[in-house]
Design brief:
- This protein is α/β, with parallel strands linked by helices and 582 residues long.
- It has 16 helices and 25 strands.
- It is 35% helix and 21% strand.
- The strands form 5 sheets. Strands 16, 17, 20, 21, 22, 23, 24 and 25 form an 8-stranded antiparallel β-sheet that branches. Strands 1-5-4-2-3-6 form a 6-stranded mixed β-sheet, with helices on both faces. Strands 8-7-9-10-11 form a 5-stranded mixed β-sheet.
- A hairpin with a 5-residue loop joins strand 24 and strand 25 (541-550).
- Helix 1 packs across helix 3, helix 3 (56-69) crosses helix 6 and helix 10 (301-318) packs across helix 13 (394-409).
- The longest helix has 19 residues, at 553-571.
- The protein starts with 5 loop residues before the first strand and ends in an 11-residue tail after the last helix.
């Protein structure tokens, strides 16, 4: 559990897999830890919910059974719920903690166990470490068998409270109060897909509550019902390239992958829809595409983040609120556009480590300091939108996007056109994110060790520009760009060249490798590049997040291609190290 907000993995026997035994042992340790750390934990209770995946309902029951056996009150949601309802309920009921059984957008073979603390935010240190230790100290099973019966009985226990309808009513009431009614003159038609997940009902309800008629909402029929098989979605992630946008005009649908990649667009073309909206299977993430004169454009997570951030800023200005008390949060690998927006407009922008366990906790701390934090996001299409939840929510993000585009319609504009306006105002930003596959950990370590002992010297300089107190020397140039700052958030290497004299980063250090470079052009003074290279905590990948900013789009695109080539050939030595690319 350290470095994660819970567990996620393949459903099968084994200690590193998801199964009844692991669920019970995890729940026993979590129960013990909460009881020792939270005052009145048993009377405050815990919240438990589940999605539609295989074993989800069973494991929600087993989780509840462990807590009920120890005298806890349990708010056990009945039926399928989208993940954000669990932290919402934790907050509304002031519960001690929450557990959601879901594997989000993972393949059908997987399931997971996500933990929220009493502040309704995903757990971070020291709680993750403490819970892990408590689990290891409580491995002997105390729950009576058969476990299938124990799971079912948890739903009938007198201390197992069903507040599902009450919480959804409160949730929709808050969402409705945060959005303006849609103009009855709106002619936009939307196609929406929950990708075989649990999002269809809450999305339709939320859209209807804001005044959008059902005639303007078309659901992808083949994907509208919860189905743990995900029959049309080999990898149920709306972020994946081609998940929404047609990548081939070939009518051959013998390939499930090709079929999935055309479903939403086929429906949109059929009904003449202007936008496609999508949520991942547990409806905590959101993606969108728009029909343009050049064809369909699938917005990146960063583009959606910029659009939704601007929406918040505009509402702040319209309501006459003080901009200096407004704050927004984004992960360090997300676009720097909101940072530029904050500098131009005067609100507070805070960067944090990747993941909503960090974004949510940073937002909570800012709120305690007197800031209003109505928005946070990460590039992986996760958005926290002013709904009282310090976590990503695909339903509230869908509502916010629909409000934005219907308002843009009234002035003859669209999301794509508005994005161009933002580029004109704050600078053009283009991203190029990808990864290398490496299944040999020593090779990964060697690649990063080489980056910390790099021989690149900026032309005209006799010394490497960046040397950490620990003796690491980082690249000083990349693709003719001069590196002007380096931040290494790797444990044992913590270094930030912008923070003399001790050069200690102001962000927490990571258990995996993570280095960020910012560079400027030697040819064009207005071009900037931000590059983060990090290891994945769950996959055998070295990921890179690359973004260029400037006014000359052609030059930016060319520079990004050169940077990627240098990363591949010189920094990663991909051929020599047998690295694979997608």
């Amino acid at each position: 559990m350290p470095n994660t907000p819970g567990l996620r993995g393949r459903m099968e026997a084994g200690f590193s897999r998801m199964n009844d035994l692991i669920i019970i042992q995890t729940s026993q340790g979590l129960c013990e830890y909460i009881n020792t750390q939270v005052q009145n934990a048993k009377s405050r209770g815990v919240v438990v919910g589940h999605d539609h995946r295989y074993n989800s309902e069973r494991w929600a029951g087993l989780t509840a059974a462990v807590f009920l056996q120890k005298g806890f009150k349990v708010y056990l949601h009945r039926g399928l719920v989208h993940t954000p309802l669990v932290p919402f309920t934790v907050r509304q009921k002031r519960a001690a903690a929450g557990v959601m059984i879901t594997a989000s957008h993972n393949p059908k073979q997987d399931n997971g166990y996500k933990v929220y603390w009493g502040n309704a935010v995903q757990i971070i240190a020291p709680h993750d470490i403490g819970i892990s230790s408590a689990i290891m100290s409580k491995l002997d099973i105390e729950l009576s068998s058969p476990w299938s019966i124990a799971s079912k009985r948890a739903f009938e226990h007198p201390q197992s409270l069903d507040v599902t309808d009450e919480m959804y009513e409160a949730y929709f009431r808050i969402l409705k109060g945060l959005t303006a009614p849609i103009s009855p003159n709106s002619t936009i038609t939307f196609v929406t897909t929950p990708m075989h997940g649990v999002g269809n009902k809450p999305v339709l309800q939320a859209l209807q509550n804001m005044g959008l008629s059902l005639q303007r909402i078309v659901v992808v029929h083949e994907q509208q019902d919860p189905d743990p098989e995900f029959p049309t979605v080999p990898f149920p992630n709306p972020e994946e390239h081609g998940a929404l946008v047609r990548v081939s005009l070939d009518n051959d649908t013998s390939s499930d992958l090709k079929y999935n990649q055309t479903l939403a667009m086929r429906k949109a073309d059929e009904v003449g829809a202007a936008y496609v909206l999508a949520q991942d299977p547990d409806a905590d993430r959101f993606s969108a595409a728009q029909r343009t004169s050049a064809g369909w454009h699938q917005f990146s997570g960063d583009q959606l983040g910029s659009l939704l951030a601007s929406r918040i800023l505009n509402k702040y200005k319209e309501n006459g609120k003080s901009i200096d008390r407004l704050a927004m949060v984004a992960s360090t690998v997300s676009s720097k556009m909101i940072e530029s927006m904050a500098k131009a407009e005067g609100f507070n922008f805070v960067e944090c480590l990747t993941g909503f366990k960090y974004i949510g906790n940073v937002a909570s701390r800012l709120s305690e300091d007197g800031y209003d934090v109505p928005f946070g996001y990460e590039e992986a299409i996760g958005f926290m939108v002013e709904n009282g939840i310090r976590d990503k929510d695909g339903v509230s993000a869908t509502v916010a996007f629909v409000e934005l585009v219907t308002q843009l319609e009234t002035r003859g504009s669209s999301a794509f056109q508005y994005l161009e306006e933002l580029y004109e105002r704050y600078g053009y930003f283009e991203t190029n994110n990808s990864y290398f596959i490496c299944r040999d950990p020593p090779t990964i370590d060697a690649i990063f060790a080489r980056l910390r002992q790099y021989s690149s010297v900026y032309p005209g300089s006799s010394n490497n520009s960046f040397r950490s107190p620990a003796g690491a020397t980082y690249p000083a140039t990349i693709a003719s760009l001069r590196v002007h700052s380096v931040r290494d958030l790797t444990s044992e290497y913590g270094f930030d060249s912008t923070r003399p004299p001790h050069f200690q980063p102001d962000l927490p250090l990571s258990g995996g490798h993570m280095i960020t470079f910012r560079a400027g052009s030697l040819e064009h003074d207005n071009v900037e590049v931000a590059l983060t290279i990090r290891t994945s905590g769950t996959e055998p990948k070295i990921k890179y997040y690359l973004e260029g900013k400037g006014s000359d789009r052609t030059f930016i695109a060319r520079i990004l291609q050169k940077v990627v080539a240098e990363i591949r050939n010189d920094w990663m030595e991909a051929t020599k190290n047998n690295l694979q690319e997608p």
